[in-house]
Amino acid sequence: MRRNFTGIAMILALVSASSFMLPHASAAVAGASARRPAPTFTLKDADGAPVSLAAYKGKVVLLDFWATWCTGCKVEIPWYMEFQEKYSGQGLASIGVAMDDEGWQKVKPYLAQHPITYPIVLGDAAFGKRYGITALPVTLLIDREGRIADSHAGMVVKGAWEEEIQTLLREPAR
Asked: Which pTM does this prediction carry?
């Protein structure tokens, strides 16, 4: 009996833990009236050039908070590069915010081995706090007016996220 209980407890623990590792569907894009402005920023890329969110007004922005150690991030980044290539002509712009504590010392070698086709900037805990980042990965979709249309903690579901991007790209810029 004790052996069966231990086995059942282990199975339940594994099922419970695995549910946290599975990609979760993202919420629907918030209606325009429910969207709040994204905190503005100007951060430097790996070459020291400034990247400003304000420069992307009129575009749909995929803002990805990631780190070199984050397994889910490593799965999502190729999707985001694919989205960038596929939809940039329609107004999508992607920006990656590396959140590694070691900063560029850790991120630059990673980028040399794993090139990312959109701008990468470096964030820190204080910057992440402005966006409510408490874990990684976190991805936001920002509409053409600079408002957060969706925020997703954990891995996104690729097809659902792409549908949300398409929805936002169909919205006219004002």
From this structure: 0.82
